[in-house]
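Consider this pair:
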Amino acid sequence: MPDMLIDDKAAYCLPFILEQLEQHKVSTLAGKLSQPPHSLPTTVLSIDDFYLPHQAQRELAKNHVDNPLVQHRGQPSTHDLPLALTLLSNLRAGMETRLPRYDKSALNGLGDRIPEDQWPIVNKSGQPKIKIVILEGWCIGFRQLPPAELEAKWKEAVSHRKQGEYEGRLGWNELFNISFVNDALREYDELTDQLDAIIHIDAADPMFAYQWRLQQERALRELRGSGMTDNQVHQFVNGYYPAYELYTDGLHAGALRESGKQLRLIINRDRRVQGVVRI
């Protein structure tokens, strides 16, 4: 039976969210805003729901067969950005909109997009218009690094690996493959620039990602009867872990153009808040 999780983040998030609402008609936020006393029509999107369909992901992997970072979903370049941008634009305009959904348990954990006729619809005629859009995802707010900075971070990681004092994954990858993902990330700026605010749930130790992903996939296997094996989970996290090494510093400095619009919640292994930073 999975461990009981205690969510202590709402006490920090809700005041921040409501402050942003005073300045924006439509915001990308987190919280229980659809419930009383606020009762604001809210929809939740995940960056995962914009993953490429399985066949398109296979083609991407085949076209870059020597790049281990894009052999499965996860990294920048594995999302359908035109779909994401069109959807956000439609929501801002109050248009009737289908929300894509992605089934991570499909194909024994490889995942695939759910058929469009099964996507939920919001902003139907007679329904309240969506006012709050919550977009969550592990790479939200990451921004492309200049080539010189990218190479410097990579060389430092390789140096630490050779010295035998390295736990990360960046130093185990070729610079060419890292650069491919970094170049793809530039296109995500248009998505980040649409955000009115960011709440960054930041692990005190990025290595927690392995434990948390194992817990998630085990729960998924229990619920749906399929999902990634523990070994597949380790390989999966290995694939996107270099991005934490590259882009977390930039996110700590602030991903938005305007200051005061980002909240960083530092959490421990048990997902409890141990520090709060306003950026």
In short: The beta strands are 27-28, 42-46, 97-98, 102-103, 112-113, 121-122, 132-136, 198-203, 262-267, 273-278.
